[in-house]
Each structure stands twice: as C-alpha cells, then as structure tokens.
Amino acid sequence: MILFVIFGNIKELQQTSREWVKVFREAGRDYEGVRDGNDEMRVAREAAARIPPDAVYYYTRRGNWTEVRVRYAMCPNNRTSAFWTVDDHRWQYFLDMGREVKDPPPEWNSVRLSGGVMLYSRPGYEIPPPAPRPAASLKRRLFAFAVLLFAQTLGGFAALSVAGIGPERGGSLWFLGASFLAGFAMLTGALWVWLVLGGSLTPAAVWIVAIGIPLLLGLPACRRCASRLRELVAEKSLRASLPLSPLGAAVAIGVAYYVSLYLVPVVLSPVYSFDALSHWVYKANVLFQIPTLESSKFTRLNEYPLLWPLNIAMQYVLAGGIHDELAKWTIAALLIAFLTQLMGACAMLGVSPLFTWAFLPLFIICFNDPSLRWAYADTPLIAFLAAALAALTGVFGKEGRLRYLVPGFLFLCAVAGTKFEGGPTVIVVAAALALCWPRFPLSWRGWLVGASFCLPALITIGWHWHQSSRGFVKEAHFQEPVTWGKVQLLFDNIFAPPDYWTGAAGWTLFAGMALFVALRFGEVWRPGERFLAITGLGLLGLSIVAFLGWPANFIRHQVYTALPRLILHAAPALFLFVASLMGRAPTTATGDGEHEAAPAQRL
Question: Residue 503 pLDDT more than 70?
C-alpha cells in the first residue's frame, strides 16, 4: 500500500521537475535569468544597477509583494528606502512602477526600463549607465558550497568521534548526516559568537573557523576518527542504513529517484518566496554587505536567531558575492540530512531498513508544505530537531545512554538558534525526555536531565534580549493578552475549508494512520516511543499556543500560511512514532524495564 501511494505521487513530481528544468534551460542555465522572469524583480534589478550606492530612493508601492521584491533587488546597492510621496523633496531617485507620474517636470532626468517603467532623478542627480554587478563564476559558487559543506561535515565528524558516537547503531548515512548538521551548528555558531563579541564576517574569519574547528577537534582524536572511517564502511553500519537484499536495493533505488525528483525544483529555482525575500535571505544579503551586527539596523524581525542567515552569508563570503542560489542548494543538503536522521532514528528504534526506506517517502507526501523547499528556517529547524530526536532515541537504547545525550544537547542548541520558535521547542523536548526517563519522577536524574536540556532555550532568550537592548527589536510575538474571542477566532480559521492549507489531504491521511496504529489493542509502547509521542503532541499544542499572543487581525490573516509551518515542526516526532509502531518487531521486556526490539524484517 505504501509503495502504491508513492508511485501515485511520482507522476506529479516528474511533471514539476520537467517544468523547472525547462525554465532553467530557457533562462540560459543562469539563476539571474530565472529570477528576472518576474517583471517586478527584473525592473528593480535594472534600477539598482543605475542608482548609486546609498542613494535615497522612492518607488511606487502596489502592495507587500512589490515592496519586498524591490527592497530585495536593491540590496546591496541601496540601503536607504524612504516611505514618502512623489511630491516629497527628500528623495533623489524615483522608480515609477505604478505609472504614477503623468507629466514629469522638465528638469527631472529619466530613463525607460523594462516594460515601460520609468526611473526619474531630481536635478543634480544623474542616472549613470548600468553598472555591472560583480558575479562569481559557477565554478566559484560550487567551490564555496562544497568547501563549507566539507568543512562542516568534517568538523561534525570529529565532534561526534570525540563524543564516542559511531555509526554502528544509526547507520552510515545517519552518521554522515549527523556530522554535517553538527558541523553546521558548530562552525556557524562560532562565527555568531565572534560577531557578538564585536568581530566582523570577513573571509579570514570564515576560513579560520572552517579550518580551525575540524583541526581543533580532529587532531587530538585522530585514532578515533580513523576508526570511525572504518566503521562507516563496515557491514554492521551499512546494514543499519541500507536494505542489503535484491528487493531492498530496488526499493532504495526507487526512493532515491523519488527524492531526487523532489529536490530538482529546490536546486534549480532561485529564492522567490515572500519570507525569504523579506527576512531570511535578505538578512544574509545585508550581513554580507555590513559584516557586523550593525546590519540589524537594516533588517526586520531581529529577534529571530541568526544561525540560518549567517550560514548563507558565510557562503557568500567564500563565493565573493551575493548568489542566493547557494541558500537553495543548502536547503537541498539539509533535506537530505533530515531524511538520514529519520532513517537513523528508525534504526535505533529497531525498525528494519527495508521498512524504513519504503515508509520514508510518506513524509514528503503527508507533510509537503511549500515552506519545506523554500529558503525558510523551517527546513534547518526540522533537520536539527530530527537529529536531536534520533540522538535522544538512542538514549533509551540498551547501551550508550549517556553518550547520546551529548549530540542531543548540541542539536537542541542548533534548534534554539535557528528560529524564535526553537526555544519553546527545546523546552517541549526536554520535558518529554524527563517524563520518559527511567523511574521519573522518583529519580533525581530525570529531573536533572530535563532541567539541563532546557538550557539551550537560553540561546533564543539571550538573543532576543541582546537585540532588544540594542534597539533592534520593534515587534514582538506576545503583543496582546489571551482572550476567549481570540481562541475562538483561531479555531474558526483552523477548521476553515481545507483549500487554504497546502498538503491538508496529506495531514488527514497521516492523522488517520497515526490514530489507527496508536490505538492498536494490546500494544506496549517503549520508552523511546513514549518520548516521541509526548514530543509530537507537545509541539502540536505549541503550534496552537504560539498564535494566542498575536493581535486578532494577525490571527485572521496569518494562520493560513504560518500554522502549517508551525505544525511541520511536530511532524518528525509523530512520523517516527508511527514508523516505530508499524515497523518494529514484537518487544520483549528487559531487565532494566526497557523494551528492546529485534530488527524487524517485514514490510
């Protein structure tokens, strides 16, 4: 049945992939050409090439999309935008995208851009010929992406080796994905600390971090790293990741093809979604141009942590310019790493590789919200969260309990540093970990572990305080008290007709499946499964609570797009819970009160 559902979805993915390949080919295999397919973006980029840096410009606003596209395209040439009118005498250049000026004064200079849009300037301000934008070659962009990818994976590989973590339980693919995510968190986090201390995002700083952290961790543990390399290709590690049988090989090849179809639009499309243009990638662009935390003067939503946009800015530094396709390539790498973490968690739960590979595409089918493929912070957040869940699932195994706490804590730090919602997410995971700890609440160890794993939330809180103390936070999530009217409004929007919710049918399918397997008569839940169930349900509740501090008009208009992204954060825990109940072998009680499953070999 699972394979039937997957095959039914492949045709749609093939069509979408072909369309993006066609668009990319018609644009001359150039991301700028694809981006210029949007009229407003193309006109704004033409204007940016003619307006001198730091000029005061004004443009006709026809809505939020126009404002976001123009501001994004103008960056980094122009950092000053004035919300004035045509009659205001403070602006120097005016981009008349709305054909607002019918009879311009004769002393104004003017240039006609694409689509007949006029660019004006006041007397004394010339409109120079278009200045070529510096552009790195494709080879240099690929070099920047590959160098940071390799440095992050190497740094994470060394860190996990030092912590005594190997691929034998989660498998080779899990270990490589966890290495990349651990290195992503450590390298970017180190530069973030450097910026907080007053440093700058310079090429020297990026290279020192990219080379220094792997060396600092790897040199003292050369023997451990060498043994981990041997374990990666050992039969035990490969069996935990790959279904080593003819049927298993066929399933793995089919799923790999399915995932590659899903990733084609991610790789071939530039950044074009609203929040990425207005916040996430725009912040990376500004960080590249103003390589200190003073860049917050020119960005919005500064209470959101920097881990994701700073990582993009690091790649810009290595590439020598702003090329936002690097962000999309990184999203593809994060999606692959995310899937490897789901696979590793399934292996630690005793689910067979064959079932895992066959079940894995259902995540894409059921939770296919567009934000998963856009350059938002939701993708890195669920990747880090899945890595934390995989590590903490290993805590409930028969061996190595304390060792897996170390990477779990690191990944929760990354969750807290990725989005504002990451802090509350960490607290939910910490509470679930404590509740499922052996002999909790009678054992003090459960209380200690729960309290310790709440500490990463201080990253989110501390960053909010840091930005607020410098006057960079102008908006807050909790702006109004909770009222019954807002609760009713929220649920009225949630239960609105389903066409507003992308992927609603998939969520319905998964909810029915989860309810069926969770209520199977006589089923004994193991500690790891209870941990996943509590985490998933807690994050679902958090998704609802997150809206109650918003003003009523925000709830009315933002639920449609924001709520699916918030609920997406609960999806990894719920998916792993269902996968474990469906794919594990019958459990047997062990002496310490846990339940160990023999590797399941059935579909």
Answer: no
**Mean per-residue pLDDT over the chain, rounded:** 83
Stated as kind and residue range, the H or E segment containing 16 is helix 2-26
Q: What is the rounded CA–CA span in Å between residue 198 and residue 192?
A: 10
Residue 91, phi-psi category: left (phi > 0), alpha (psi -120 to 50), beta (remainder):
beta
SS3 588: strand
* Inter-residue contact 579 to 349 (CB < 8 Å): yes
> Which residue do the tokens 């059921």 mark?
366
Residue with tokens 């700083």: 205
Q: What is the mean pLDDT of residues 236-259?
A: 85
230-242 pLDDT per residue, tens: 888 787 788 888 8
Element holding 494 (H helix, E strand): helix 484-494
Rounded to whole angstroms, the Cα distance separating 407 from 411 reads 6
Rounded-to-10 torsion of CA 588, 590, 596, 597: -20
Reference 185, options 302, 308, 91; nearest CA is: 308
Give 272's contacts (C-beta < 8 A, 6+ positions apart).
Answer: 35, 38, 41
Which stretches of 255-383 are assigned E, i.e. beta strand? none
Q: What is the distance between the alpha carbons of residues 509 and 503, in angstroms, rounded to a whole number?
A: 10
Q: Which residues contact 498 (CB under 8 A, 6 or more apart)?
A: 504, 505
Q: Are the CB atoms for 305 and 463 separated by under 8 Å?
A: yes
Cα–Cα separations (whole angstroms), residue 600 to 2, 287, 344, 582, 585: 17, 49, 14, 10, 5
Who contacts 427 (Cβ-Cβ below 8 Å, separation ≥6)? 454, 457
- pTM, two decimals, is 0.90
Segment 414-466, tens digit of pLDDT: 999 999 889 999 999 999 999 998 888 888 888 999 999 999 999 999 999 99
Q: Is 54 exposed, middle or buried (0-12, 13-18, 19+ CB in 10 A)?
A: exposed
Q: How far apart are CA 529 and CA 515, in angstroms?
A: 14
- DSSP string for residues in 38-53: SHHHHHHHHHHTTSPT
- Is the pLDDT at 391 greater than 90? The verdict is yes
Is the Cβ–Cβ distance between 287 and 315 less than 8 Å?
no
Contact 420, 300 (CB under 8 A): no
Predicted confidence (pLDDT) per residue in 147-197, tens digit: 999 999 999 999 998 888 888 888 999 999 999 999 999 999 999 999 999
